[in-house]
From TrEMBL:
It comes from Flavobacterium psychrolimnae. SUPFAM superfamilies: YbaB-like. It is found in: Cytoplasm, Nucleoid. This is Nucleoid-associated protein DR980_09805. Keywords: Coiled coil, Cytoplasm, DNA-binding.
């Protein structure tokens, strides 16, 4: 077992994971309420970039709060799936299969 080669590969993979995380900052996920009155954009790293609220929602605080929770959760779920798929792809592509190593990047 070539330990030095494996360590080098590990470093390389960590670098690729960092690069992927940086790139995910530029991947935008849009989500909106079914009627389009509330729109949210966030990065695949789950950083909120913009929120657009239709004026009609400003008259109903409870509805606005419900919309926020619903739309944000959907957007975060989408971003998380995108994030995990990208990082999994990098890890699987580059990792030598060492038992137990796949839990390292979770």
């Amino acid at each position: 077992m070539d330990l030095m080669g494996m360590m080098g590969k590990l470093k390389e993979t960590q670098q690729k994971i960092e690069d992927t995380k940086k790139r995910l900052d530029t991947v935008l996920i849009d989500e909106q309420s079914s009627d389009g009155l509330l729109k949210v954009t966030l990065t695949a790293n789950r950083t909120i970039k913009s929120i657009t609220i239709d004026d009609s929602l400003l008259e109903d605080k409870e509805q606005l709060e419900d919309y926020m929770i619903l739309v944000m959760n959907k957007a975060i779920e989408k971003a998380t799936k995108s994030n995990e798929a990208e990082l999994d792809a990098v890890a699987k592509m580059d990792m030598p299969m060492i038992p137990g190593m796949d839990n390292l990047f979770k």
